[in-house]
Amino acid sequence: MTEGRFITLEGGEGTGKSTQARALADALGGGGLKITLTREPGGTPGAEIIRELLLSGAEEKWNICTEALLFAAARAEHCSKLIHPALMRGEWVICDRFIDSSRAYQSVNGLLSDAEIMDLHRIGSNNLMPDRTFILDLPEAVASKRVESRDRGDSDRIGGRNSDYHQAVMANFRQFANDEPDRIHLVDASQAAEVITENLLQSLGDLMP
Ligand code: TMP
């Protein structure tokens, strides 16, 4: 057993996950907890190299299975070298995206099932699951507007996919929250950033030492 806690933030593109991950780390760290703030894909030198491979270049650079395997490979590095050791030291790990992103994104075209994506997670990362996951949810209209404005910019290989894809991703995330209400909390991301942070902190009450 360990006192460490593993918290993940999930959601579509541009929902403010990274801002909230930082705010949560500051608030919990300020309260005296030891925090490791990290992100996926990435978080270790090797996993950051895989991130670059995954997110740069044209859509056809990777087929969907390769893409899912690369995310799982980056996660295996991240879990074994950073997340698991930090949890064993009793730290709180706050991670911007984790396995639920693979379940939401890599399942969209129907080539890979949720069970297959979880198989990769079992093989690569010993099925490590978060204690709590927050999905930052935006109303459909706001989310697709943000995605559209990103599509006109220099978005990455996956962020640049069309709005049907991103709507399917959000529908997956909402389904996960519905299926696993104890672990996964849906958060209204249209509120002011400070209000969202306060909601997140309150929803961690049951995990506090
Ligand atoms: P980020 O922009 O939030 O850092 O995430 C990078 C992109 O990678 C984003 O479009 C979501 C995508 N992604 C997946 O498709 N599967 C995954 O498992 C993860 C962690 C991210």
Write the layout of secondary structure elements.
Elements: E1 5-11, H1 17-30, E2 35-39, H2 45-55, H3 64-88, E3 92-96, H4 99-105, H5 114-125, E4 132-137, H6 140-152, H7 163-179, E5 184-188, H8 193-202
Helix pairs in contact: 1-8, 2-3, 3-5, 4-7
The structure holds thymidine-5'-phosphate (TMP).
Descriptive key words:
Rossmann fold; 5-stranded parallel sheet; binds thymidine-5'-phosphate; alpha/beta; 8 helices; 52% helix
Task: Provide an overview of this structure.
- The chain is of the alpha/beta class and about 210 residues long.
- The protein has one domain: Rossmann fold (3-Layer(aba) Sandwich), CATH 3.40.50.
- It has helices spanning about 15-30, 45-55, 65-90, 100-105, 115-125, 140-150, 165-180, 195-200; strands at about 5-10, 35-40, 90-95, 130-135, 185-190.
- A 5-stranded parallel beta sheet has the order 2-3-1-4-5, sandwiched between helices.
- Helix 2 (about 45-55) packs antiparallel against helix 3 (about 65-90).
- The model has no long low-confidence stretch (mean pLDDT about 95).
- Thymidine-5'-phosphate (TMP) binds near residues 40 and 106.
- Thymidine-5'-phosphate (TMP) binds near residues 55, 71, 101, 158 and 159.
Give the class-level CATH name.
Alpha Beta
* Attached small molecules: thymidine-5'-phosphate
Q: What is the average per-residue confidence, as pLDDT, rounded to a whole number?
A: 93
Fraction of helical residues: 40-55%
CATH evolutionary superfamily:
P-loop containing nucleotide triphosphate hydrolases
- Low-pLDDT runs: none
